[in-house]
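Input record (Table S2, row 255):
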Amino acid sequence: MQNIADHSLMNAIPRREAFKTLGLSALAVTAVPLLAVAEDHKSAVAKESEVGFKDGKCVLPPLPYDYAALEPAIDEKTMRLHHDIHHAAYVKGANVALEALAAIATGSGDATLIGHWNEELAFHGSGHALHTMFWNNMKKGGSKPAGALADAIKTAFGGQEAFEKVFAATAGAVQGSGWGILGYDALSARLQVISAEKHQNQTLQSITPILAVDVWEHAYYLKYQNKRADYIKAFLTVVNYDDVAVRLAKAVAAA
Ligand code: MN3
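Output record (manganese (III) ion complex):
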């Protein structure tokens, strides 16, 4: 994952070029805000490469807020179980898979199991990556999209209300366990909503996720039972669009 704090990277991307890839006007009153938002918020947004991986291993990052911070949208008990038990299990599973694959790569592991361990890494590693982003995609009280992110949403979906409708419908339609995801698609140079089954299936490989809602039952069943749509609606009230804006700027710069 690219690091937005890397000034050489940011400076290497001509603003007009980065801006054009979003499909917005080259005259660019909002080109500056896209990168400016990233600059403004870079210190406030956790970097997954720093909080989710340390000393060659996946690590469980602490929540960026109190367990009860998202009440009443998401209850404290769900957050404790979700972060401390479920996310922790993906971290553990990803490390087991990484170790097994490293052993195979150096000749000491069982090479006949390479397919199995790749599947394990895809599941647990994707679970770790999505949860690490998911916690930071939310904050107490939420926020509204502004500047270039709001423009990109308008270009792709027609507006915020239409985006939320598509996002909620997509997340609601996931069969069984999975995620609704908003991502920057490098192929079409625009925002795209997709869904994932489990964590890793049914993806679009050209997408960099910038906002995701977990629709596994463990994410909402204690409070919402079978009413997934109500949970998704509540999730949308606590989205941290400042975090999403920084992720968009990073994805555009890396494309
Ligand atoms: Mn989960």
